[in-house]
Amino acid sequence: MLFNSFSFLLLYLPIVAVGFFLIARQSHLMAAGWLALASLFFYGWWSLSYIPLLLASIVFNYAIGWRIGHSTGSVRKKWLILGVVADLALLAYFKYADFFILSVNAVVQAELPALHVILPVGISFFTFTQIAYLVDTFQGKVKEYRPVHYLLFVTYFPHLIAGPVLHHKEMMPQFDDPRTYRLSASNIAVGLAIFAIGLAKKVLIADNLAPHANFFFDQGESPTLLVAWGGVLAYAFQLYFDFSGYSDMAIGLSRIFGIRLPLNFNSPYKATNIIDFWRRWHMTLSRFLRDYLYIALGGNRHGPVRRYANLMTTMVLGGLWHGAGWNFVIWGFLHGAYLMVNHAWAALAERLRFPRDARSWKMFSIVITFAAVCFAWVFFRATDVGRAASIVQAMAGLYGVALPDSIGSQLGSLRAVFEQAGISFYLGGGSRFVETWSWVVIGALIAFVFPNTQQIMANFDPALDFVTNRISAGPLVRVLTWRPTAAWACAIGLVTVGSLLSLSRPAEFLYFQF
Prior knowledge:
By secondary structure, this protein is mainly alpha-helical. It is about 65% helix and about 0% strand. It has a two-stranded parallel sheet with strand order 1-2. The two termini are about 15 Å apart.
């Protein structure tokens, strides 16, 4: 079931919310059970056939977690290894079996038949959530084992399909807090405002960028420089607002029920370096990879060479987590290389006492970081590595620079100047070119100039904020700070109406496929 669908907005959400608070008057435990069952229904709306798989995974991990928590000595570690290996084996089968078979066929010229395994929606997120639970249990961070709360912890519908990746210690105290089960006008107002902003990001921005990004990446022609950058930027901002919109909607929905989810998106395109980018983009996944993979491999404790190897391993596996394909491996490799360069430069700049606080240097840093991220997005989105290589060459100007003839005809005598500068003109595609770049400019203005949702809602603690580096507030933040006023109610209402009028054909969120 999609957050951006009438069935969810007009039926599912009102019924679940009203039922939750009515049942909570009688029993908090029964209300938690109602929310867990509603979450299973939410998941089953996609396909009933995978509910048994989800439930089996939950029962297995709950049992393993209980064993870890009630065992002593080396037995605890054996239970942990069993649980983690089983979880990863399940994920590997559904996500990577066909990728492995096709890769073997390509290398050794074999003809092994593909299994054509259908990937269950959300399997990466509920698997990582439960692996984190097992490790936290082993480390003594888990103190509560009520099965109803654990069922809700894993299936909780705002996060189940596309994150955030949750920690047991973040959610269990909230499920056990009596305030969660009290109807709160403040929570509903804040939650609906955040949800409306997220819905607008998805429906009004991301979905309008999608046709231009899809048209560019799915065509087979070799593009010229401006066409290539327009298509890549269209995808960069589509993915940005699609994922940002989902993250906001998840946080807003959860707030209606009095539960705060961890922050998962924090204006990543405003990052001044790749390290900062990964502190802002898919923050709970970054946290998971850092805590349970990078640190487990040794982190930075064994010298720079080992540190860089650990960074590369973590990012390549993080890339592979996003999809079973060599393009995702390359994307992860690129980000691993970026992080290595970033750490090396930071160490060198520290020694040289290089002045990095100047405003001009920060602006340059943001631009170069954004360009590097967009370069990597090409491999993330392209249908195959060959297509990605062609796009990268076009972005470098190897196929020349060209404009639609419809634009050239408006230049008058300046057209000759353009042609002398090496810019050619082609027939057709004028409206596509203009629309693509118009939406790119709109996306850039909102992403780089306007405050994000957390800044707009900052006075009402919109999320569990484990990030220490907050974005500095600018003049627009003070103007656009949300307040429970009639003016803001009208503004949110208008945004919501505009979004609802655009819901004739709801589009899935991009992170559903991961």
